[in-house]
Amino acid sequence: MKITISGKQMTVRTSLKELTEKKLAKFDRYFGNEAEATVAYSCRHDLQYVEITIYYGGTIFRAEEGADTFQTAIDRALEALERQMRKNKTRLEKKLRSGAFDPLPGDMEEEEEGEFQIRTKYIPYKPMSVEEAILQMNLLEHQFFVFRDADTDKPAVVYRRKDGNYGLITEE
């Protein structure tokens, strides 16, 4: 696995880079050498955060965790990634290398998700401004809101970010 390690507004110590590479090596059983991992370390709100993103065969695996130490944060992020993969292992076995999910000694069985339960919701596509869409989202107490942008006449999504700000997703 090709690993890129960076720090946001900080320099990552060599010992932390080595620890990261060692801990990510256990994911080679899932991906082999074709995967690319990006690890970003940062400090905010008196916590140390690690964000791990793994790209493999058109699929993106991502986890972000914060803790008192970077070592704890990386352990939590790796556990979250493994939990995601175990939960969806039947679907992922087609994309990952064969034998990736053979049980190893000490592995615990985790309940796998069944078929996706999809509930369809139809909404009126009234063109509106981004500000109006954020207001509507807040009134509905949702985390995101789909709307047609009045300026571009294209579908868009506004969402509430973890930091309390808002994000906008739209096509080019």
How is this structure best described in words?
- The chain is an alpha/beta fold and 172 residues long.
- It has two domains: 2-92, Double Stranded RNA Binding Domain, CATH 3.30.160; 127-170, Sigma 54 modulation/S30EA ribosomal protein, C-terminal domain (SHC Adaptor Protein, 2-Layer Sandwich), CATH 3.30.505.50.
- It is 28% helix and 31% strand.
- It contains five helices and eight strands, in the order βααβββααβαβββ.
- Strands 1-2-3-4 form a four-stranded mixed sheet, with helices on one face.
- A hairpin with a 2-residue loop joins strand 3 (47-56) and strand 4.
- Helix 1 runs parallel beside helix 3.
- It is globular and about 55 Å long.
Task: Write a brief structural summary.
By secondary structure, this protein is α/β, with parallel strands linked by helices.
- What is the top-level CATH class of the largest domain? Alpha Beta
CATH-derived topology of the largest domain: Double Stranded RNA Binding Domain
Q: What is the number of beta strands? A: 8
Share of helical residues: 25-40%
Largest sheet: 4 strands, mixed
Q: Note the beta-strand portion.
A: 25-35%
Strand order of the largest sheet: 1-2-3-4
**Count of distinct structural domains:** 2
Please give the count of helices: 5
**Helix-and-strand structural type:** alpha/beta
